[in-house]
Amino acid sequence: MGTKIKSKTQVVKNKDSEKKAVANGTNKEDNNVFASCTFSSLGLHPTLCDQLRERMGFEGPTLVQAQAIPVVLSGRHASLMRKFRLVNAATGTGKTIAYLAPIIHHLQSYDKRIDRSDGTFALVLVPTRELCLQVHEILQKLLHRFHWIVPGYIMGGESRSKEKARLRKGISILIATPGRLLDHLKNTASFLHTNLRWIIFDEADRILELGFGKEIQEILNLLGSMKTGHEDQENTVTRPSKFQRQNLLLSATLNEKVNHLAKISLEDPVMIGIDDKTMEPTSKIRFVHSDSDEDNEDKYSNKIAAVGAYKVPEQLIQRYLKVPCGSRLATLLSVLKHLFEREPSQKVVVFFSTCDAVDFHYSVLTEFLFSSHPQTEEGNRPIFLGCKTLRLHGNMEQEDRTTSFQAFKTDKSALLLSTDVSARGLDFPNVRCIIQYDSPGEATEYVHRVGRTARLGERGESLLFLQPAEIDYLQDLKKHGVSLTEYPLLKVLDSFPMSGHKNMKNSVFIDMHPWIMCLQKALESFLSSKPHMDELAKKAFCSWVRAYTAHRGDLKRIFMVKKLHLGHVAKSFALKQIPSLVGKSFQNQAKKRKRFEKKSGPSNKRKVARRVK
Ligand SMILES: Nc1ncnc2c1ncn2[C@@H]1O[C@H](COP(=O)(O)OP(=O)(O)OP(=O)(O)O)[C@@H](O)[C@H]1O
């Protein structure tokens, strides 16, 4: 594998990057992110190595790259049997380069240069539009000196006719979201993919969780990439190809859904991962897998679990806050204020369960004026939180989504409020803190959300909000090897200047804390003075309660709807009363859903739809 080969130049370069890392307060060597070899020792073309160093600023490969690149490169010399490979490594370890670099290496090496009229050679499937743009941007940089290899993307929200025109001209490496890809596969006759050699599933488990399982099967069928002999394969178009087809599957978390995708598409897969204890690349694990052999299937699933499905960056500081429901909003604002006062120039992401909740909190954070001196006139009160605030969710116009996404990428200091649309794969540089204000549900989602910080060995912290009744969620995370410590919330609240409350340090209850009470009162009067805010709050309240009911399986025991006090939930949206119609409509919906689930059992699509991203 060559991960231990260390050239003289590499030693010098690594020393330079060590110095830089120490200056940034991180030590990448300590975090065992990088391999001690060079890109060229992995077999990549010298021009590509120059690109990685000069244009991208990468001195050497990460551990996962050192492990994956030779495996993807070797596809060229392997037998003609189709391969399906799994790459499983912690968030922020450079998985994108791990598959793009070897593909580019192959494409540039063809004796007869490829050109646009050859159509698509590599297809990268991603779950979200933002990830599509991000991978495309990296690809553009990598291809700077390989102008004959054409990058492109197709995704929901873009103009179909413009995409058709681009596909007609030819795209060598295509990044796509599944729905839009299927659309073009069916309706764009000029989309040439007979030379397709690679299919990559980036964030594979998320693609499946979003309910794209059927689309993926259809895509694999249309591309002639379903595993031979599989029962679902009756109508498969098996296209004879002069190329060996190589499929790659990537995720920081692997689960039974990925197992299913592997099942329908792979033969003799190879797992690439990092051993949790030694932080060394694991030796390749070859799965023995056959549909007819249940024992083998068990072995296969066990191995996925054994490789460690939940990997959290070692240097990440993970904490939780136990907050009574009615004080959640005031606490969130206080924690944000504390974070930005402690370090005015930094990036923070707050995750919410619904689009409406993002919109409501965005308006609060950009409009709420506050002074802890009650006598200060309204016009003289400063904005509560003076940092740049952005929002990102799936109900926004595509143009606004892209603007927010790009702004948060390039800004040095900003606060991003988002749904889980930002949880997977997005690489925002230098995010210092992740706040999970609404709980993530599945532990996998927790891992991906916190993975937006502490990337590539950098420091980072995460805060998880839990209500007292939800505290068992910590045990659930522990089962997956994730441990959190408590955030010193009272100490932080005590640090705020409050006139007229000399003995506030004696308060032991969050909801009785004078700072929280004063803030809550101010928030409620702000809301009642702004009709548009009141509307936003009511909408957010409704969708929040709906999302809360959507927790699945075992999590229903922890996030119990019947334990919710709707009056306190209303208070967490600064509403003085439970919105009148909401109680009824919520109850009706709950009844309807119970009836439906009794009849048919909950479908995946419904579950996903309820937690609108
Ligand atoms: N060899 C390298 N040297 C330095 N930086 C690198 C290297 N490879 C990748 N990076 C940078 O590391 C960051 C994380 O990379 P990437 O987004 O591919 O990680 P990931 O493992 O796919 O993360 P996630 O699991 O969140 O999807 C990016 O900013 C990327 O530019």
UniProtKB/TrEMBL annotation:
InterPro entries: DEAD/DEAH_box_helicase_dom, Helicase_ATP-bd, Helicase_C-like, P-loop_NTPase, RNA-helicase_DEAD-box_CS, RNA_helicase_DEAD_Q_motif, SPB4-like_CTE. Residues 331-504 form the Helicase C-terminal domain. SUPFAM superfamilies: P-loop containing nucleoside triphosphate hydrolases (SSF52540). Residues 76-272 form the Helicase ATP-binding domain. Its EC number is 3.6.4.13. Residues 13-23 have a biased composition (Basic and acidic residues). Residues 37-66 form the DEAD-box RNA helicase Q domain. It comes from the Eukaryota. Residues 1-23, 589-613 are annotated as: Disordered. SMART domains: DEXDc (SM00487), DUF4217 (SM01178), HELICc (SM00490). Pfam families: CTE_SPB4, DEAD, Helicase_C. It is an enzyme of class 3 (hydrolase). Residues 604-613 have a biased composition (Basic residues). A motif (Q motif) lies at residues 37-66. One of its GO terms (molecular function) is hydrolase activity. Belongs to the DEAD box helicase family. The Q motif is unique to and characteristic of the DEAD box family of RNA helicases and controls ATP binding and hydrolysis. RNA helicase. This is ATP-dependent RNA helicase. It comes from Pisum sativum (Garden pea).
